[in-house]
């Protein structure tokens, strides 16, 4: 289970005195606890599900990529490097990401199955993609590809 892998990685990083990995893994654990607490208030006593954890990790990566872009524009390369190192730690817990060719094939398959014909059907296509490829597909790129296919 992903939670166990993250907790074990945190223990290993702490034992090996890897400060950067320890800090990043603590951020992941804190975000996970926040989401679990929010889920409990909605009646889910076990916390968030595995696919929601994957989504959380992907959003953390997306935030860091945006930060890297801003830091590079501002000439703060040391901060951009720190964000890139955090991305590397977070990516260890995600399944291998689909290549653009694989993503295109998956999108074409879903469009065919859902019989999507226009941009009005984009929501259905994206929902089906998220169900099938959670964690392995970059949905910001997929969204652009779906939009270009349906226009």
Please, could you describe this protein's structure?
The chain has 151 residues and is an all-alpha fold. It has two domains: 2-91, Uncharacterised protein YqeY/AIM41, N-terminal domain (Hypothetical Protein Yqey, Chain: A, domain1, Orthogonal Bundle), CATH 1.10.1510; 100-150, Arc Repressor Mutant, subunit A. The chain contains seven helices and no strands. The protein has helices at 2-15, 19-41, 50-73, 77-91, 100-114, 122-133, 139-150. The model has no long low-confidence stretch (mean pLDDT 90).
Total number of beta strands: 0
Indicate the CATH architecture of the largest domain. Answer: Orthogonal Bundle
Distance between the termini: 40 Å
Sheet/helix structural class: mainly alpha
CATH topology of the largest domain: Hypothetical Protein Yqey, Chain: A, domain1
Which series of helices and strands comes N to C? HHHHHHH
Strand coverage percent: under 5%
How would you describe this structure in keywords?
76% helix, 151 residues, 7 helices, Hypothetical Protein Yqey, Chain: A, domain1, Arc Repressor Mutant, subunit A, globular, 2 domains, mainly alpha
Secondary structure layout:
Blueprint: H1 2-15, H2 19-41, H3 50-73, H4 77-91, H5 100-114, H6 122-133, H7 139-150
Structure summary:
The protein has 151 residues and is an all-alpha fold.
């Amino acid at each position: 289970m992903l939670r166990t892998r993250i907790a074990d990685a945190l223990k290993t990083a702490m034992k090996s005195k890897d400060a950067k990995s320890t800090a990043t893994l603590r951020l992941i654990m804190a975000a996970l606890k926040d989401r679990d607490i929010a889920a409990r208030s909605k009646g889910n006593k076990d916390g968030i599900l595995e696919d929601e954890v994957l989504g959380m990790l992907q959003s953390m990566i997306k935030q860091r990529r945006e930060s890297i872009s801003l830091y590079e524009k501002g000439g703060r390369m040391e901060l951009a490097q720190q964000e890139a190192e955090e991305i590397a730690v977070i990516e260890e817990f995600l399944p291998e990401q689909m290549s653009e060719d694989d993503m295109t094939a998956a999108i074409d398959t879903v469009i065919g199955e859902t019989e999507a014909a226009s941009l009005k059907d984009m929501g259905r296509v994206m929902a089906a993609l998220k169900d099938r490829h959670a964690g392995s597909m970059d949905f910001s790129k997929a969204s652009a590809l779906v939009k270009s296919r349906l226009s």
